[in-house]
């Protein structure tokens, strides 16, 4: 390989190492050409002439269908909300407690005694006292007070479950509860939304 007349040796070197001018194997060169041809056909077929849907357009179609189903479910839930009663099924209450502990307890405490959010155990409810009022408060949130709109996060069944669990906290006596924020005791009559 030290022969200066070797046709495979190029005329430059780096640190005493001379570069070889080897041809690529023919199968590799043809594979390279095939991938170029394939990419041109793919680009034309999917992006230039739009003969088939791309994954992005299929995602957009599926998302629109999912949003339509979600919106229909939300409208149906809102239509039946005024007739809801608290759930008593232990599995539903357990699911509601799990959701409450995860999402509600940071503001209302695990025992419902209130931190940033109001006390959920007393009779001084700010946004309505009956079960339907509670469901609507969770569903719509109270953005001006920092409570998010949970209908964008939780599905109707989860909201009903957490509202049912919160309903079980009412009348309990947590340690060091937050003082009442609404000095008018909760009504037991019709909802303020009706």
Describe this structure in words.
The protein is mainly alpha-helical and 194 residues long. Among the domains are: 9-48, no CATH class; 78-169, Cytochrome c-like domain (Cytochrome Bc1 Complex, Chain D, domain 2, Orthogonal Bundle). Helix content is 47%, strand content 5%. It has five helices and two strands. A two-stranded antiparallel ribbon has the order 1-2. A hairpin with a 2-residue loop joins strand 1 (9-14) and strand 2 (17-20). Helix 3 (90-108) packs across helix 5 (156-169) and helix 4 (131-140) packs across helix 5. The protein is elongated, with a radius of gyration of 33 Å. The protein starts with 8 loop residues before the first strand and ends in a 25-residue tail after the last helix. Mean pLDDT is 86; it is low at 188-194.
Give me a quick take on this structure:
This protein is mostly helical.
Write the layout of secondary structure elements.
Elements: E1 9-14, E2 17-20, H1 26-48, H2 55-80, H3 90-108, H4 131-140, H5 156-169
Antiparallel strand pairs: 1-2
- Alpha carbon gap, first and last residue: 96 Å
How many helices does DSSP assign?
5
> What fraction of residues sit in β-strands?
5-15%
- The neighbouring-strand order within the major sheet is 1-2
Can you give the mean pLDDT? 86
CATH superfamily of the domain at 78-169: Cytochrome c-like domain
Assign the CATH architecture of the domain at 78-169.
Answer: Orthogonal Bundle
What shape does the CA trace take?
elongated
Overall strand count: 2
CATH fold type of the domain at 78-169 = Cytochrome Bc1 Complex, Chain D, domain 2
Structural class: mainly alpha
CATH class of the domain at 78-169: Mainly Alpha
Are there runs of 5+ residues with pLDDT below 50, and where?
188-194
Radius of gyration over C-alpha positions, nearest whole angstrom: 33 Å
Q: List the helices and strands in order.
A: EEHHHHH
Sheet with the most strands? 2 strands, antiparallel
Helix content: 40-55%
């Amino acid at each position: 390989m030290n022969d200066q007349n070797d046709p495979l040796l190029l005329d430059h070197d780096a640190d005493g190492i001379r570069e070889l001018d080897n041809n690529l194997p023919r199968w590799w060169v043809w594979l390279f050409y095939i991938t170029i041809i394939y990419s041109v056909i793919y680009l034309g077929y999917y992006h230039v002439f739009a003969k088939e849907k791309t994954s992005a357009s299929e995602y957009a179609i599926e998302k629109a269908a999912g949003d339509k189903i979600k919106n229909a479910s939300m409208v149906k839930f809102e239509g039946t909300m005024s007739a809801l009663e608290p759930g008593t099924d232990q599995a539903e209450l357990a699911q509601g407690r799990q959701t409450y502990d995860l999402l509600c307890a940071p503001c209302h405490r695990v025992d419902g005694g209130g931190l940033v959010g109001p006390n959920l155990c007393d009779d001084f409810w700010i946004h309505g006292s009956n079960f339907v009022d509670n469901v609507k408060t969770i569903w719509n949130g109270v953005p001006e007070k920092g409570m998010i709109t949970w209908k964008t996060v939780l599905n109707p069944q989860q909201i009903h479950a957490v509202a049912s669990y919160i309903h079980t906290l009412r009348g309990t006596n947590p340690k060091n509860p937050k003082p009442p924020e609404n000095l008018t005791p909760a009504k037991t009559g019709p909802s303020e939304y009706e």
